[in-house]
């Protein structure tokens, strides 16, 4: 037998669904040598996951790839609840807001998984200069063995994970195209335009071959039946339970006289429960309780389930309204179950993300979102570790931070599913009212969680805070990671909550009066941020404080690592034509003041730390912003919304994923806390 | 000598700059057989036209191609005026708004012509289904002869224009790449990413060949030195005058301590005048008066002008502020002159558009805009004439409508340029103040014209109005075209001005509560529109009126022509997956009511004319909108902004280019006027 070909890579990603693609996108932006393999012959073209929660859209936007989702997706703005009246006829019992207003510039939206996979692939391509070959998904490739050289696990130069990959023939790969546990998809002919290339390009008639890859890190994003998880051993098995409830799912273009067909709607009829998710392209997704199919304490007999059975159930629940369809895009069925694992990583060398470590029911639109957010949490940590900017032990924060989310998700989903399935509505109005009221209340209190905005990470070197006193957010596994020695002052910025995502409000660019979402000036490019809310710098004392901090930053920041950025570093202003030679610091500084804009002269009044000079490009006019008036829009009052005093301001420290890690004053003490925070992250030996 | 190969085409477009590409885009969207040829080897990559006025952005948005301009362009929000103080030192004398707030959702923006040419090309490609070859620009092709068979000019089935085309070798075509009258461009190395393909793909080493094309229509969009214009004969020559003033233009990345470098700025220093246009990619464009170069009553000696001379003038005008640069992207120089022609068309078979019929100075950022708007006016008329939907005499409205704009432009430019060049600032503050004040006033009063929103078309069959009583908008050449027999009632919709573009405000979709810019529901797809402002349809009397109109429309509209639309018919919601078999009417109907949204049930309360049924796709939920409250944004008060009574409403008739052609009541008389308007357009024999 001949030796297999061998190669090295920094990161090997197994699985090219949303979790794997998010990771690949991060690593592309950071310029980390990566491969991503997938067993499927092509990306998904219809059906599957479809709900985009607002935090996911913010994250996609931080890479500049949310625009197309936001344009093509259907937005779900209001939610409607229907229950039987005293005669057993369904009627609308309530209609209310679906996403908490003011929480984000986005609202919950729906678009099928294939489109977002395409946008990820385009976003990865945009990370590379035109003279380099971009990272591409290697399809029809499966891992067949995985080993970790435990002795080399803590050597930052080592490639201790060895994986054997098998490149399948098309015949071998085709069965894996069966995407769900059931036969799925009955109409597939109308592919979106830019999907076609993916199908045509896939290689034909190639021969199977094996190769060995030695990686610094391997991440299994390979779904509920994760090969990677199995390869890591028994202690990685997921645990949880299944209920007997069976649900059908159909994506159809409905022909119906039901009035709320374009709203997210929950119907609880005597014939069963149903949820309407209105989608793009005149379609709706229906989640339909299948009362006549039962798992009977075990796994359901799949042969019982056909689209006809599912649709007849839907018609009964819609009654007396009519429901027909001509086009069906996709259908499937599932048994509700919730499972998660105890371990998200082995030796901080092999990681699991997404469905590989948590599975649950799809109705709350969480799956793809939590999965993408897992690898969004992991990507910059692995990337900066590969570049020797972050010490390896920071990688432990991945499991700490994301296991808590997975457990919250499982708990939430169990409660939500039971509530939905388990409360058969009564046929007397008064009794229905109660049950319906409970359901609505549960729905609304869950919105902070389901939007993804409620995520609250624990105290570590990355988040300088005390353990959260609120028992609801407390962890059930002990947090033994090293804490930051910096001390935050949360009261200085009451809506920039430590451990939570920094919100976005509009601020005015000092140099040209253009309004910007502050998020658009904080793209995902691997850099930590100091957002210096400088307060009213038209007041000399305050201006002196801000400039003293600027002077200190000018001497301190050069002691921290630098980061080589790739071309797509300003995803919200198009392409970068002229390049600076300077290698940017790992810490980016942005100033947002509250003084009247016309009383500030950028070059004269503000320290150069806030408008750095480049010998070829001149001063940077894109780092100083104001909270005030323009000719074109009502004032945003950003200071008020961030919960910051407009006189004295505050400094907010952000991790590369936009989570708040430090809140500290503008003055001398602030500089000390900033130094402690960054030294605690970068300078440990 | 062998016979030349011959072929037929509906429309031949000569020139693939913004005017030609706009025309090609229109014709692609309408499914009209078109060819477009250009003498250049590739599209423009830097420099040239760069200013986007708000009306142009609205037009691009109506094809779904404004998003990328809006993202990549620099927005000019405020304008700054600098003059010498009593010591002769320049100081800021005023800073004010650059685009009238509330006029449009867009503001004036700057992006180089090469990008917009790329977006046009992408927009044309998106007009075709994936299994068809899209219209492509045929480069390195020039016309060498043009003849019109005058006897066949009025035969709607004829192809009376014969053009011989020469396909150049690369050697022949290369000199035409010299884009301006002077050597231009000294740095061209940093092309934007998606520009590269255009260069690589151009054919190499091909042989010259000739062919004969027989076209229904030919449009010359071939610039100031238009071959087409010359081919049409002496009476098409442009007339006008040149001044002695010479201006230099440079696109640089400035290194300067001048405080307003990122604002649009007019500097009038004792050393001369200069205008700053801040642009994308950290660049600014400087328009610099060259006092030491003079045309001396004739044409300037071009060899005098170098980038060094231009830049030294700029430095003197900037003094005492410093100005340096490392990167220069492009430069040129020009002599101010204004010219236009008397005829825009020959026999309504050959047309001229853009610089081919009007040239002027570039400083007001009008050139590309007026050019694109010329062919935006012409495209749907030619397209619908080719499809035998519009009678040929409607084509006469092109010259009537656009010649007036060209004359206004020339007059405006003469005044604006003279004002800018001719008023040397005094070195005494009080005297400067006066001259500066005059300048600022002229600048601001010109904004309605320069934004393109002030355009006001004359009474014809397309615009049912009386001749405008305002002498400022009156025409100097007599308008002899047939008038509509319909009678508008302007007072019913005071801000939907007859002959002007219909403005856009946000309305709420009845079916799902989503806010939409009303423009986004009126894309450029060749259809006329009736926007039925139905008023308060929660009131039975008003609802009955609206539904009676709906019933009448259901019987009247089927008598009008239908229009086959291409796939990209909803550019603001992504791709269309499921298709209706119905062939849509030339008239699209949209209902905007002012009743509380929750008091209206779309299917129950509103006539099916406003939510047409399709046997495969069910009811259309995208045609009824409301002006009221949502959970997410402050009320827009669209009725108030459109100047329409929220009780009784109004019907506004729109041409396919979005200009208001009819304003009439919702009731019985409205139906009569609608019938007169459309019959006058479509049913003449």
UniProtKB/TrEMBL annotation, chains A, B:
<feature type="domain" description="Phenol hydroxylase-like C-terminal dimerisation">
    <location>
        <begin position="455"/>
        <end position="683"/>
    </location>
</feature>
<dbReference type="InterPro" id="IPR036188">
    <property type="entry name" value="FAD/NAD-bd_sf"/>
</dbReference>
<dbReference type="InterPro" id="IPR036249">
    <property type="entry name" value="Thioredoxin-like_sf"/>
</dbReference>
<dbReference type="Pfam" id="PF07976">
    <property type="entry name" value="Phe_hydrox_dim"/>
</dbReference>
<dbReference type="InterPro" id="IPR050641">
    <property type="entry name" value="RIFMO-like"/>
</dbReference>
<dbReference type="InterPro" id="IPR038220">
    <property type="entry name" value="PHOX_C_sf"/>
</dbReference>
<keyword id="KW-0285">Flavoprotein</keyword>
<feature type="compositionally biased region" description="Polar residues">
    <location>
        <begin position="478"/>
        <end position="488"/>
    </location>
</feature>
<comment type="similarity">
    <text>Belongs to the PheA/TfdB FAD monooxygenase family.</text>
</comment>
<dbReference type="GO" id="GO:0016709">
    <property type="term" value="F:oxidoreductase activity, acting on paired donors, with incorporation or reduction of molecular oxygen, NAD(P)H as one donor, and incorporation of one atom of oxygen"/>
</dbReference>
<protein>
    <submittedName>
        <fullName>FAD binding domain-containing protein</fullName>
    </submittedName>
</protein>
<feature type="region of interest" description="Disordered">
    <location>
        <begin position="466"/>
        <end position="488"/>
    </location>
</feature>
<feature type="domain" description="FAD-binding">
    <location>
        <begin position="8"/>
        <end position="412"/>
    </location>
</feature>
<dbReference type="GO" id="GO:0071949">
    <property type="term" value="F:FAD binding"/>
</dbReference>
<keyword id="KW-0560">Oxidoreductase</keyword>
<keyword id="KW-0274">FAD</keyword>
<dbReference type="InterPro" id="IPR002938">
    <property type="entry name" value="FAD-bd"/>
</dbReference>
<dbReference type="Pfam" id="PF01494">
    <property type="entry name" value="FAD_binding_3"/>
</dbReference>
<dbReference type="InterPro" id="IPR012941">
    <property type="entry name" value="Phe_hydrox_C_dim_dom"/>
</dbReference>
């Amino acid at each position: 037998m001949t030796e297999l070909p061998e190669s090295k890579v920094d990161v090997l990603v197994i699985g090219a669904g949303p979790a794997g693609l998010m990771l690949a996108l991060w690593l592309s932006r950071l310029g980390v040598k990566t491969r991503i393999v997938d067993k499927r012959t092509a990306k998904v073209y219809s059906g599957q996951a479809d709900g985009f929660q607002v935090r996911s859209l913010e994250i996609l936007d931080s890479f500049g790839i949310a625009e197309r989702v936001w344009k093509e997706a259907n937005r779900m703005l209001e939610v409607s609840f229907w229950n039987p009246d005293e005669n057993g006829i369904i009627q609308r019992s309530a209609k209310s807001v679906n996403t908490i207003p003011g929480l984000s510039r986005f609202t919950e939206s729906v678009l099928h998984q294939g489109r977002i996979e395409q946008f990820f692939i385009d976003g990865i391509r945009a990370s590379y200069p035109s003279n380099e070959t971009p990272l591409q998904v290697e399809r029809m490739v499966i891992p067949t063995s995985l080993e970790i050289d435990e002795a080399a696990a803590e050597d930052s130069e080592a490639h201790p994970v060895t994986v054997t990959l098998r490149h399948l023939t098309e015949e071998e790969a085709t069965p894996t195209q069966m995407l769900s546990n059931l036969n799925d998809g009955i109409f597939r002919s109308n592919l979106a335009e830019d999907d076609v290339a993916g199908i045509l390009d896939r290689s034909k008639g190639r021969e199977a071959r094996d190769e060995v890859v030695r990686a610094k890190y391997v991440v299994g994003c390979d779904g509920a039946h994760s090969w990677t998880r199995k390869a890591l051993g028994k202690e990685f098995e997921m645990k949880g339970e299944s209920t007997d409830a069976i649900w059908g799912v159909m994506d159809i273009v409905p022909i119906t006289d039901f009035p709320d067909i374009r709203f997210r709607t929950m119907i609880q009829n005597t014939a069963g429960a149903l949820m309407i998710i209105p989608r793009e392209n005149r379609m709706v997704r229906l989640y339909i309780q299948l009362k006549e199919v039962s798992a009977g304490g075990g796994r359901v007999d799949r042969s019982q389930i056909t689209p006809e059975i599912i649709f007849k159930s839907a018609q009964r629940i819609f009654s007396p309204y009519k429901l027909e369809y001509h086009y069906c895009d996709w259908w499937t069925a599932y048994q509700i179950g919730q499972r998660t694992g105890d371990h998200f990583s082995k030796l901080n060398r092999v990681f699991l993300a997404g469905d590989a470590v948590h599975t649950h029911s799809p109705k709350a639109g969480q799956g793809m979102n939590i999965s993408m957010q897992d690898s969004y949490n992991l990507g910059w940590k692995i990337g900066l570790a590969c570049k020797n900017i972050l010490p390896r032990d920071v990688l432990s924060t991945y499991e700490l931070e994301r296991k808590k989310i997975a457990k919250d998700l499982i708990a939430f989903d169990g409660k939500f599913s039971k509530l939905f399935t388990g409360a058969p509505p009564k046929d007397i109005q008064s009794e229905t009212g109660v049950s319906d009221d409970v359901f609505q209340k549960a729905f609304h209190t869950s919105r902070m969680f389901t939007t993804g905005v409620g995520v609250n990470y624990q105290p570590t070197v990355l988040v300088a805070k005390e353990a959260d006193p609120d028992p609801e957010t407390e962890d059930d596994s002990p947090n033994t990671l090293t804490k930051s020695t910096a001390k935050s002052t949360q009261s200085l910025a009451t809506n920039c909550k430590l451990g939570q995502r920094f919100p976005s409000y509009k601020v005015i660019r000092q140099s040209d009066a253009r309004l910007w979402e502050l998020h658009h000036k904080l793209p995902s490019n691997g850099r930590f941020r100091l957002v210096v809310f400088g307060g009213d710098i038209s007041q000399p004392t305050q201006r002196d404080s801000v400039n003293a901090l600027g002077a200190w930053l000018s001497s301190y920041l050069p002691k921290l690592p630098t980061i080589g950025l790739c071309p797509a570093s300003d995803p919200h202003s198009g392409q970068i034509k002229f390049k600076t030679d300077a290698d940017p610091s790992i810490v980016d500084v942005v100033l947002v003041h509250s003084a009247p804009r016309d009383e500030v002269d950028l070059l004269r009044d503000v320290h150069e730390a806030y408008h750095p000079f480049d010998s070829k490009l001149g001063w940077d006019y894109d780092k100083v912003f104001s909270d005030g008036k323009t000719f074109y829009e009502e004032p945003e009052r950003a200071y008020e919304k961030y919960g910051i005093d407009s006189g004295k301001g505050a400094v907010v420290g952000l991790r590369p994923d936009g989570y708040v890690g430090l809140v500290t004053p503008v003055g001398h003490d602030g500089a000390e806390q900033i130094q402690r925070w960054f030294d605690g992250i970068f300078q440990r030996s």
